[in-house]
Structures
1.
Amino acid sequence: MRHCISFLIVLTALALGGCASNPVSGKKDFVMMSEPQEIALGRSADAEIRKQYKVYANPALQSYVNRVGQKLAEHSHRPGIHYTFTVLDSPEINAFALPGGYVYITRGILAYLNSEAEMAAVLGHEIGHVTARHGVRQQSAAQAANIGISIASIFVPQLNTQAGQDLSNLLGGALLSGYGRDHELESDRLGAQYLAHTEYDPQAMIRVVGVLKNQELFDAEIAKQEGREPRRYHGTFASHPDNDTRLQQVVGEAAHLSVAAPKENKAEFLKQTDGLVFNDSVEEGVVRSNRFMHPDLGIALTFPSEWSVKNSPTQLVALSPKVDAAMQLKIDPKPTGTAIEYARRALGKDATVEALEIEKLHAAIASAGNALLGIVYFDRKAFLIQGNAKTAESMKAQREAMKSTIRSFHILSDAEKNAIKPLAIKLTSAKQGDTYAKLAQHSPLGKNAESYLRLINAQYPQGEPAAGQTLKVIE
Ligand SMILES: [Zn+2]
């Protein structure tokens, strides 16, 4: 799991401590932090995490995750500290821990897990980072090298801007590189022990690594469609293949601790995650059958059905089937001049500009070379729908598709806003003859529905449902 290291923010607040003995090894660590300092560090970093993420608003699920987490923590090397387990309202596939016992798991990763034992494996791994004091050892190394403090003080003021965010992620990653493979394997080993102590199968750890590996394979599949490099977003897990012999070894060490009939609790886990929000939250706008709807902005935009549309909190981008053309939505919060003037300014005086009226709004379409720009004035903002093509030929082929997207600009009514619901997991029972291809036809997930359905049901890349099997679908 990628480890968010937002706690570099509070580095400056720390005084230096002395050597402390490690709760796992019992040996003296080169750690400049006492346990109270560690807990104070965790507490203030936790406040930062809660500002950056929302806590997922489902008390029943929160208490279920907390129950499983507390059980594991009780049987860990540091049962004495106070642990918290929090589900974050994020579609990211992630889990992380802060020093002092603060453990987070996203709703994004929960969607891809299929039993309580697998969730316990994720939590157990994170508890391992806490008990072995990896975060603290990391911090101490940074302090010793005298880099952490200057990084924190230089970049913290920019944290709220996107650039500052990217920078801090980058620096977080650099600081984090010391977590590395050895600490990750140590966490897997500890997590496997904690699983065995609480009567789960330690092998669940290896299954979770497989779940994350499948995410990487899936992203490679999408990256190929989109003509981009695959993301390597499980930085630490990338060095962590499920057939890795060291991983098999460290998890295997827990085998002698495990009980004869370990609990899987698949049905209970699935019941708890029935209704779980999947992918985007409504606040970021949703895409349904290539129609983008954003309740806060109050607008909708419909992209051509064969294009692939990607919505993230920071941008909305659509790509043509051959990836030779793209469209993007941008917003100018303080536009000046008329839509026509705006268009000329943006694309130059040689641009062809036509005025347009869309739902009684002032609008314009401008084109120049392989670029097309739609401008719609609404709610004192300029909505800019920008189209670009790689070649004159692909521009010619996609021009009408781009124009019809611009003309599809729509002001949402209150009834339409209220009808926007997030996608959610729904449990169903597979019928005779069900295939993922068939289920995908009725799915709102769009182009890659078949792969998504296989992934959430742990049958990626080739599996098919068996009649009577409990299935997760997305509605
Ligand atoms: Zn880890």
Note: The two ends are 27 Å apart (CA to CA).
2.
Amino acid sequence: MLQLPLREFNGELILGLGRHDADFTSDLFALMQLVPPLPAFTDAGKAFNKFLQRFAVVGPASIMLTAGTNPAIEFAFILLSHRDPVTLEWLDEPIQDLPEDMMIPADPPPWWHSRKKATQFANGMSRGGDHRGTMILASSLCTDTTAEAAVILDYFIDVVAYLESIEPPQYPYPVDTELAAAGEEVFLCHCAGCHGNYSADGENDYYPNMLIPLELIGTDPVFAAYGAGEFNYLEEWFESSFFGAVTQLGVTEPFVGYVAPPLDSVWASAPYFHNASVPTLDLVLDSGARPTYWKRVDFDSTHYDWGALGWPYEVLDHGQDQAGPLEQRNLIYDTTKPGHSNAGHPFGDALTSEERAAVLEYLKTI
Ligand code: HEC
């Protein structure tokens, strides 16, 4: 079930919106490995064959449990384990064994947040003004020398400028301005301290870039804790590498937690939280109502729930272990699986249903 339309929302391509429908649960890797190598006597052939060889290493080790979740973070761990940090030479034998049960489902953040964020990742990794180190590492499947990496680093001045130029989309339907104004009051009181203030033209926005300790936010701990504590290989590798001279990774400092993300056009980027565990904004604000097992009704981007602001879902009475073959199992978001918890962020729970509706209306305007 490989979905081909790219970053579509409501039937349209939205620049900078992460894919909510890509399926990394198996087929892609199996398919890649069926592609025959090209004749190795041309540069293109050599490059393609190298790509296939690398993919054979990272692919099988980064299979997701649920369609719609993304293995980008796991890719990084696996790639690093096959590279010398100083020379960037590729090593067929990994220099670090990764935990067999590694499972870090990710939800790609929208690119229109780039210009606000001091850290690039949900757990606060990639610090400081220059994020090019982590960005080019992510595209380093075939970069085998520091000389090659230096050339790419220069290109990324333009890539970063482009990312920072992307504007959030406007909400496409009429908004109840009175209700939204009431919602703004609630938002300023209950939400802005972590998520910032928003102005109509964006000119007077204030975004505090706050990392919230795991104990307080209470969302799934896996990604926050990875790289911290015993398994600190990622940080050690990165800080001693070519990329660490450009960008500071900072997994463990100042503490383990998640960044409260900017909320510009957040209505467009369902599902929610760093692990895509919550299908609608309505449920972000009501932690007790979140389903333990759920499944998207379909992957039609025009089939959106404009009331709850998110993807229509079905609540199931069983998880992946009780499901049938892969093509049924991988549609189930099972929040009891490691990395997939939908707990935490209880900050909307104390709101009345009127206040919650008002906040949702306000979120359409920012
Ligand atoms: C104490 C800080 C804090 C407060 C208060 C807070 N949030 Fe959050 N919020 C966070 C953090 C941290 C995350 C990221 C959690 C994660 O991904 O694991 C988050 C995530 C979210 C998301 C999901 C964003 C996405 O793209 O996935 C939304 C929406 C949101 N918050 C809205 C609100 C609203 C509305 C309020 C007020 C009712 C609020 N938050 C109050 C810290 C806070």
Note: The pocket of heme C is lined by residues 122, 190-191, 193-195, 212, 216-217, 219, 258, 260-261, 263, 266, 269, 272-274, 281, 284-285, 345, 347-348, 359 (CB under 6 Å).
